[in-house]
Amino acid sequence: MNQISTGPRDWSIRPDTPRNASLRKTPSPLNCQRGRPSVAALDIEQHVRKAAVSKFATTRIIFPKGSDRAVLAARDGAIALRQTELRLFVVLANHPNAGIRSDIEIAEVLWPDPDAMPDYWASVIQVTVAALRKKLRQVGSEIEICTMWWRGYCMKRPGMELPQ
Description:
The chain is an alpha+beta fold.
């Protein structure tokens, strides 16, 4: 997507209308007038702080009301998840009995529209898996994401055996 910088506000050209390229406002985490975090950014941070105080015994995903983001919480704290990390977590968690999800299956969930899929989609999946693993360790989660070479990824919980 082409980005046009017009001073304190960010605008983007919609790729689906090349003839009448209209401009639309892209959401920014900062309030453009004063350089402070926006209301949405403050809301997610408040939910992260509340979840961090709770100290959950098991890993949980918290969906704040009215927000498109989510909070990952466990025994050592909480952290906000990006959309791609949340989708990856849900894809791996929804497969019963620690089933293996291939890169193609994950890509279809991350980018339901094939035209929106980047050319370097496999690298994006690897980076997202690494970021999600790091966040799971930061919050002290009991869940691990395992790589099954040449087959894909699976989510492992304590007491579960990895698929063969």
